Write the structure tokens for this entry.
Amino acid sequence: MTQPTNNLPAARPRKVLTQIASVSWEHPADRAALQSLRSVPGFDLVVKKIYGFIGERGIRLLFQGMDRPFIVINSGALKLLDDDEMRTLLGHELGHVMSGHALYVTILILILNFSFATLPFLAGIALLPIRIALLEWFRKSELSSDRAGLLSTQDPHAAMRMYLKMAGGGDMKQMDLNEFLIQAKEYEEAGGALDRIFQILNTLERTHPFNTLRAAELQRWIEAGHYERILNGEYTRRGPDAENRPIDKDIDEARDHYMKEAKAVVNDVVDSAKRAAQAFSDAFKKK
């Protein structure tokens, strides 16, 4: 197996991040997507109707589950992951718990897995925009929890190995982590307008981003210095600091995130159009 030649920091003795608040690691696009979701017409009505469907007892049980949550681990993951990789996975799931994702995930699961025959009270509501918005939020929430997973293991290589294995790998003797990370960056950077459109379409109905993209996004977070600052104690604590934290910066960061995505698509379309126009012009010159 090729030894890592990337710029990932080495594992270090784990630090206890006392009273860390979830806002310290949450991806700004996670919160932005959630706010956008709440503004989708009909979303509040769907929430109310599902609340009614679950009933008072179900709501009580749901809130008890929030107070005493549990994590389910697939038996395949137990066989596939080593201890540090498993610590990353458990930290990821705890990140979902600490960010309070349970309610909206429950709504998404109901919409994705049950028909109108099972949920007749949702008949007449345009669910497609809500479904798409929920999926977009959930994919962004995965990016938040990926950061929580890294903070749990405090071993970037273990986190990246987990993505590699989840992407379809197994025995690390037959895999190259460096090539996987190169592939992740190539997927993000390569191709033109049509490729980017296919990237969007490929993930539109997925609950999780592709593992290559998750690895690239986490690597970018590390390279920006956020991971190191948190390990050095520069993070928001639970309590008033987290509750009174201004959201202006988050909104700006989320806007930048989505603008970069949109700008890349627009630039590719413009470049393609320019090339097409040039080819058309050249064809006439030859005549």
About this structure: The longest helix spans residues 248-286. The chain has 13 helices and no strands.
